[in-house]
Amino acid sequence: MELALAKKKVAFALDYPELELARRGAEAVGPEVGVLKVGLELFIQAGPAAVKMAQETGAEVFLDLKLHDISKTVERAVLTACEFGCDYLTLHAGGGPGMLEAASEAVARTGAKLCLLGVTVLTSLDESDLESVGVHEAPAQQAERLARLAKNCGLGGLLCSTQEVGRLRQV
Questions:
Q1: So what's the pLDDT on residue 1?
Q2: pLDDT tens digit string along 103-150?
Q3: H helices within the chain, ranges in order?
Q4: How far is CA 57 from CA 31, 34, 99, in A?
Q5: What mean pLDDT is reported for the chain?
Q6: pLDDT tens digits for 61-80?
Q7: Under 8 Å between Cβ of 30 and 58
Q8: Could you tell me the pTM of the whole model?
Q9: How far does CA 157 lie from the centroid of its chain?
Q10: Contact criterion met (CB below 8 Å) for 155 and 78
Q11: Backbone angles phi and psi of 135, in degrees to 5
């Protein structure tokens, strides 16, 4: 694989509690990665400045907020992410078809290059956790169901456990 293509496939998580630490992390790895992930903790602390800092490195920006709310709220948040110029944005596929379709349609209306990624089942959840919230299936089965839903609602990709990648690619 060509080095430039390999670099583009590598993402680095800016999982830092404050912007200056994230900036140092981004500068340290920037030339070697193609994507920088701005997660919830950093975004809550620094807001849009975290996205801008990541963009200044020349890397693509993955805004990992795992949105899950009413359709109108998610739609507005997606429109804002489009304005930021993010490349990827996560939302929980468990938010349902209305929420996922509203998000997908919002991106389409703007013509933005934003790729929506559906989060299937959090890797921290096991079968008993799912059971406690009314899901009576194994995590792999729930992930498959949510992956199909995300795809049918127009999302561009998925976030799932490494144990589920092979199966979800087949599906």
A1: 53
A2: 999 999 999 999 999 999 998 999 999 999 999 999 999 999 999 999
A3: 3-8, 19-29, 40-46, 48-56, 71-84, 97-110, 127-132, 139-152, 165-170
A4: 8, 10, 32
A5: 94
A6: 999 999 999 999 999 999 99
A7: yes
A8: 0.93
A9: 9
A10: no
A11: -100, 115
Tokens matching residue 38: 């701005």
The two three-digit tokens of residue 51, written as one number: 């996205």
Give the rounded distance of the alpha carbon of 33 from its chain centre.
17
Q: Could you count the other beta carbons within 10 Å of the beta carbon of residue 163?
A: 11
Enumerate the active-site residues. 66
Q: Dump pLDDT digits (tens) for 81-96.
A: 999 999 999 999 999 9
In 3-state terms, what secondary structure has residue 56? helix
The DSSP H or E segment spanning 35 is strand 35-39
The answer to whether 138 and 127 are in contact (CB under 8 A) is yes
Say if residues 81 and 63 touch (Cβ distance below 8 Å): yes
